[in-house]
Design brief:
Elements: H1 2-22, H2 29-63, H3 69-116, H4 121-162, H5 166-224, H6 228-290
Helix pairs in contact: 1-2, 1-3, 2-3
Length: about 290
């Protein structure tokens, strides 16, 4: 609200002026005139601000009929409280300025007495030099504190600059998602290559076994058919080979069935995800049409 912001600015300015009035002043006749002038200007400015707040209260009273009652009452209460605070700060400011003025007048009288009584000027100059050196040291300390505060501010600004913004975070997220997709594609491709290699390697082993078996049968067939005992051994060996082939075939069938079940499960998940995507799309379209 404009009235509250004015009141807050007024309070801030008053506090600044009070701080300025409370700073140490050098003992000099010209400084006494400057202090009295600052006190007068501060008092005039406070009176002017007080008149401004009273005018604002009058405007609020005029707007009371046209505006909302609760809102205007709150503004009036806030302005009344601000006016009371201003009056308290004005009295405190005037008291402080008067005390400062009386102190400076006493110091001026004391200095004039020293000058009229022909005291040693060296002691006066020493006191003035001491005051100047103290003021210079205070100024240097304030400058050092200001420099340290500026360094801290710059460090904080650098830290804030290092923090990524919302746009940069969105870009990072997009790049990470793209990188994740590429990695998944490479992983699937690598798995497919390994599966193909293993399948070809297994086919190669089976073909080598089949070739060695055929060579063995071809080399021993003529000797095996010459006697009934050799024939029975050949038949037994062929039956053992057939059993091994059947066991291998059973294992292949089991692995094929497991892969088929996994494929069916993936198809079911894909169909469920597709239906969920359609439902979400329908809800989104309905929400957009409603809005």
């Amino acid at each position: 609200m404009s009235e509250e912001s004015k009141s807050q600015r007024t309070c801030t300015e008053l506090s600044i002026e009070e701080k300025e009035c409370l700073q140490p002043l050098q003992v000099d006749s010209n400084n006494e005139g400057v202090s009295m002038k600052m006190s007068k200007e501060g008092s005039d400015e406070l009176n002017q601000k007080k008149v401004t707040v009273v005018k604002d209260l009058q405007l609020l009273r005029e707007r009371f009929i046209k505006a909302d009652a609760d809102h205007v009452v709150q503004n009036l209460m806030s302005c009344s409280k601000t006016l009371e605070d201003l009056e308290k700060q004005e009295s405190k400011f005037l008291h402080t300025c008067n005390a400062k003025r009386y102190k400076l007048q006493d110091e001026i009288i004391e200095l004039e007495g020293r000058l009229t009584e022909d005291h040693d000027c060296s002691s006066l100059l020493d006191s003035l030099d001491h005051l100047i050196s103290e003021s210079q040291e205070e100024l240097n300390s304030v400058k050092k504190e200001l420099a340290s505060r500026l360094r801290e501010t710059l460090a904080l600004k650098r830290l804030l600059d290092d923090v990524p913004t919302q746009t940069e975070l969105i870009q990072y997220e997009r790049r990470f998602s793209e990188l994740y997709i590429n990695i998944q594609d490479k992983l699937r491709q690598t798995r497919r290559y390994y599966a193909t290699y293993n399948a070809h390697l297994e086919i190669k082993d089976l073909m080598l076994k089949e070739t060695s078996l055929l060579k063995s049968i071809s080399s021993q067939f003529q000797d095996a058919i010459t006697s009934p005992t050799s024939q029975m051994k050949l038949i037994d060996s062929m039956e053992g080979i057939l059993k091994g082939i059947l066991q291998k075939l059973d294992k292949v069938d089991l692995s094929r069935e497991a892969e088929q079940q996994a494929c069916n499960a993936l198809k079911e998940k894909y169909s469920a995800a597709t239906s969920e995507q359609r439902r979400c799309y329908t809800l989104l379209k309905a929400f957009q049409d409603r809005s």
